[in-house]
Each structure stands twice: as C-alpha cells, then as structure tokens.
C-alpha cells in the first residue's frame, strides 16, 4: 500500500469530519442558538423563552409555593427595541380538579432592579388569564407580549416544558 495515499485519505477524512462538525454547529447556532430551558432547571441568565424576535431570560429564580402552584420570579425580556425587567407571578391551576379555576393566571409589573421584586405582594400592572378552552383574557393593563403564552407553558410545566416524572 502506498503510504502517501493512506496519509492523504486520513488527512482528507480528518478535514471532512472537522468541516462537518463546523457546519452542524453553524446550522444549530444559526437556527436559534441556545435552547429554551425549563424554569424548574434554569439558572440565572438562561433562556426561558425565545419567540418572534424576543428572548426571555431568567433574572431571579422563581420561587414555588404550595398548594396553588404560585410561582414568582423575575425575567429579563430582550427584544430589538431594548430590554426590560419584569416581576412575574403565575398561579398554575390544575385541570379537571373540583373548585379550581379552569385557567392559569399570570400577572406582574415592570421593575428597574431585581431587588425590587416582592413576590405576590407587589403592585400588579397587568394580568392575563389563559383559559383551558384556548381563550386568553387580559384582565388588567396590557399583556407584555405574545411570548407570555410560551412563558406560561414554561412556568406551569405544560406542553414540551412538562418535565414532571410520569405517573405509573
């Protein structure tokens, strides 16, 4: 066997492999970058929602309270027009449970610094109800954006954010 030919093939295979890896990486980064992370596993700075040119990052970990699945935390909403901090509270209901509402309730307010977050005791500027029949009802103020529905899925562990163990 000719050693120069073997060396050339190995070199070519190595370059092709590196090029393939580079191409795959470029496609992944070019197609959206880092993936959304379930809030139950997210660290400060990680992406909770990426939708329609808006990125929502965790700015202060969500705290969970029982029994009504109230969660409160702070997100940084980044869009072409700038960024904003929002304190967000969510009351995630339980489908098909007597005496529970048939909707998830998200409410919140803009804040200047993470330290201003007061949990459920802060002044609410907006409130949006996500009914289980698909209706979305803005109860107070204006919805902060179309990304809120995706954040609701993340906070309430619905859809592809449902990372709860399966029941047997």
Task: Describe it.
With 168 residues, the chain is an alpha+beta fold. Helix content is 21%, strand content 34%. It folds into 2 domains: 1-33; 47-161, no CATH class. It has helices spanning 3-30, 148-155, and strands spanning 47-51, 54-65, 70-79, 82-91, 103-111, 126-131, 136-140. It has a 7-stranded antiparallel beta sheet. It starts with a helix and ends in a 13-residue tail after the last helix.
Residue windows where pLDDT falls under 50 for at least 5 positions: 14-30
Q: Helicity, in percent?
A: 10-25%
**Alpha plus pi helix count:** 2
Q: What percentage of amino acids are in beta strands?
A: 25-35%
What is the subunit organization of this protein? single chain
Give the biggest sheet: 7 strands, antiparallel
3D shape = globular
Order of helices and strands: HEEEEEEEH
According to DSSP, the number of beta strands is 7
Computed structural class:
alpha+beta
Count up the domains.
Answer: 2
Largest sheet: spatial strand order: 1-2-3-4-5-6-7
Radius of gyration from CA coordinates: 22 Å
Distance between the termini: 60 Å
């Amino acid at each position: 066997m000719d050693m120069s030919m073997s060396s050339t093939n190995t070199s070519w295979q190595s370059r092709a492999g590196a090029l393939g890896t580079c191409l795959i990486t470029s496609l992944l980064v070019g197609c959206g970058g880092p993936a959304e992370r379930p809030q139950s596993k997210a660290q400060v700075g990680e992406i909770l929602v990426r939708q329609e040119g808006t990125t929502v990052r965790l700015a202060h970990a969500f705290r969970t309270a029982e029994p009504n699945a109230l969660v409160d935390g702070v997100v940084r909403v980044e869009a072409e027009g700038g960024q904003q901090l929002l304190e967000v509270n969510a009351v995630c209901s339980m489908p098909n449970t007597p005496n529970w509402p048939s909707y998830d309730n998200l409410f919140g307010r803009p804040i200047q610094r993470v330290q201003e977050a007061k949990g459920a005791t802060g002044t609410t500027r907006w409130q949006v109800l996500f009914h289980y029949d698909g209706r979305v009802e803005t109860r107070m103020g204006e919805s902060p954006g179309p990304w809120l529905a995706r954040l609701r899925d993340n906070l309430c562990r619905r859809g592809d954010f449902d990372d709860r163990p399966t029941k047997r």
